[in-house]
TrEMBL record:
UniProt-recorded name of the protein: WAT1-related protein
GO molecular function: transmembrane transporter activity
UniProt keyword terms in alphabetical order: Membrane, Transmembrane, Transmembrane helix
Cellular component terms (Gene Ontology): plasma membrane
Membrane topology of this protein: Multi-pass membrane protein
Length: 355
């Protein structure tokens, strides 16, 4: 009876965790934007964030995964080094540099192209199977395209402005100079970041097969990424040594939040979900962050809300549900494959191999 009650919760665990992850990212958008407007260097932020995340995750990784942590060979270390470069150095520096030149709403909208890019890469590298002869296979493709169409709608079409119900509850200091959200520099940085993140998600799935210890992998990537980011920051801020100094203000709190929550806890959840459900499943929840950012910006910060954002949000949700419905078919395929292997190897009798 207990198993019957809690079985649906176990099935929904990856879904609920991914929703909570997007909530965590949503708050991260505004906290980091505030600290950047305050003067914090994005490159210094990434370095300190990785250090904080590594220090927090290390004790958990060391004690909880002592018996399951694989031996770290030179080849595996180089693979993790490359994974850290894409996920904890290059993509993060591009991400927060683009936030400096754009806005949370624009960046979170463009970030959703990662799902479509990851799906394409996953199919190309055979991490994702698409059977066009079955409805669920077609649903995965249509869900990805519909979500991408929703993101495009939110980005390109504004439409009439929705009336604000009240004034802003929280005031965020504006940027020192007005910057066009769709400026060339910000757009290039954002697109490059999306491509890098897509590659990182695919590499995660490959590395987890050889190093199935999510806490240890998170801690390793944090420390390696911190060293890589420090080198990058020394080059980028070579003429501004004071950039390394942060005070007891929003800069410190954003670094702590980014290190403990975003760089530590949420990355661990992403790795766990990637191992359980695959990289495409993880990235398809990114549109929720766009919706959360838009809602928070409208109701709390008093930013303008356009009709295009509302229409695009509904389209994104439709695409997300369609893809998730298609992904549920993968579970049945995995069960059939496992049973077939057991049957061919002679493990279990015929009755145990029936579906």
């Amino acid at each position: 009876m207990e198993q019957t009650i809690f079985s649906p919760l176990r099935e929904l665990k990856p879904h609920l965790l991914m929703v909570l992850t997007q909530v965590g990212y949503t708050f991260g958008y505004f906290i980091t934007e505030t600290s950047f407007n305050h003067g914090l260097s994005p490159y210094v932020y990434v370095t300190y964030r990785n250090v904080v995340a590594g220090v927090v995750m290390f004790p958990f990784a060391y004690f909880l995964e002592r018996s399951v942590r694989p031996k770290l060979t030179l080849y595996l270390f180089m693979e993790i080094f490359l994974l850290s470069a894409f996920g904890f150095c290059l993509s993060l520096n591009l991400y927060f540099a683009s936030l400096k030149y754009t806005s949370p709403t624009f960046l979170s909208s463009m970030d959703n192209t990662v799902a479509a890019l990851t799906f394409i890469f996953a199919v190309a590298f055979r991490f994702e199977v698409v059977d066009f002869q079955k409805p669920r296979g077609i649903a995965k493709v249509l869900g990805t395209l519909i979500s991408l169409a929703g993101v495009t709608t939110m980005t390109l079409y504004k439409g009439p402005t929705m009336r604000n119900l009240w004034g802003p509850l929280i005031h965020i200091q504006p940027k020192s100079a007005p910057i066009n959200e769709t400026g060339l520099k910000g757009s290039i940085l954002t697109v490059t970041c999306c491509v890098t993140l897509s590659i990182w998600y695919i590499m995660q799935a490959s590395t987890l097969k050889r190093y199935p210890a999510q806490l240890s992998l998170t801690a390793l990537m944090c420390f390696i990424g911190a060293v890589q980011s420090a080198v990058f920051t020394m080059i980028a801020e070579h003429d501004n040594p004071s950039a390394w100094i942060i005070g007891f203000n929003i800069d410190l709190w954003s670094t702590i939040y980014g290190g403990i929550v975003v760089g530590g806890l949420l990355i661990y959840i992403l790795l766990w979900s990637t191992e359980k459900k695959g990289p495409v499943f993880v990235t398809m929840f990114n549109p929720l962050s766009t919706i959360f950012v838009t809602i928070l910006a409208y109701f709390v910060l008093g930013e303008k809300l356009y009709l295009g954002s509302i229409i695009g949000g509904f389209i994104v949700i439709m695409g997300l549900y369609l893809l998730l419905w298609g992904k549920e078919g993968d579970k049945d395929v995995d069960i059939k494959t496992k049973v077939k292997r057991q049957y061919n190897s002679g493990d279990g009798d015929v009755e145990e191999c029936r579906i």
